Give the backbone structure.
Amino acid sequence: MTLETGDLLQSILDSLDRIDYIRPDDIPDIELYMDQVTTFMDSRLKNAARNPEVDKILTKTMINNYAKNNLLPPPVKKKYSKEHMLMLIFIYYFKNILSISDIQTLLGPITEKYFKSVTEKDMTYIYREVFSMEQSQIRYLEKDLMRRFKSAGEIFEDADPEDKEFLHQFSFICLLSFDVYMKKMIIENMIDHMNSSKDTDSSKKDK
């Protein structure tokens, strides 16, 4: 691959270093109105958007729909708690790859047991544990990207010189896309198993 493509990979790796999750301590302990929620999310997640100047992280309509579809517990007197904010962050990441019903399956038990929990094992506990894996995963992802990038650059050796650059980038994207496809399929199979187990438990209770 040429230097231009190599610079592209370096740009991607640099962007990974700039990824940062919202820490629980960053979220206000006071309850927020809808406008304050959207403003906070925009300010903290905007850099991860594809088109930061155009893309909306969260809108009032989105949040209302999440509550309507039982993804998010309704606000109390139009105010959203820290637990609401943590749930919205989970939804923000899930919604790019999962259906509403799949997100319901995943977050339903979390909401039921940990939302408004009076013990130390609350939504903050769940969020902190999950995102504590972030740094190690980014390091692993960087190594995996470089390995796939190298593999993609080793094919199409007999292609026309003017086509090689595009074909190498195309093959790199295909490798990444296949990885996403396979992982999405695994996630969906796991969620289907969760639903199946839930239906089995319900049947036992009805007997």
